[in-house]
Amino acid sequence: MAAEPAWITLAPKTDEQLERWLVESMAEYETARIAAGDTPEQAVAARKESEARFFPDRRPAAGQLIFTVLADGDDAGWLWIGPWKDTDGDGGDGDPWWVWDIRVHDAFQRRGIGRATMLEAERIAREHGAASLGLNVFAYNVPAIRLYESLGYLTTSLHMFKDV
């Protein structure tokens, strides 16, 4: 059954939810980087860099928005979006925004929730004056790549590696 946007809502995370989310999200980020080829040390360094840039004092930097994705009132996942540059978050003169992290919990997948959430992310970015919305996706995440392509996202960079 496909999700209808009417029953998808984004609720800003409370301080308590934000603290729990930050631990879980950053742990998943490390795991994903390792799965994509980073060493554990590289993954930890990338996580620490991300936390320092986007969550000084464990609080979101200006303009960074973190939501709980609700499907019929149930916690179905999360969305973190914000400006690429360190700004006040208004999008400036059409500055690009970024989907930094999106997650639909396993029990809620394959229902259109990811699609509806991405459409909401686009709406929010437009409301903040963004001219574009970018994202990164690891190559092994084929279902996500298919979703983003179906929404009109184009590949702008491709990194390739080989163990030697």
UniProtKB/TrEMBL annotation:
Keywords per UniProt: Acyltransferase, Transferase
Superkingdom of origin: Bacteria
Cross-referenced CDD domains: NAT_SF
N-acetyltransferase domain segment(s): 8-164
Identification of the protein by name: N-acetyltransferase domain-containing protein
Organism whose genome encodes this protein: Agromyces humatus
Taxonomic lineage: Bacteria, Bacillati, Actinomycetota, Actinomycetes, Micrococcales
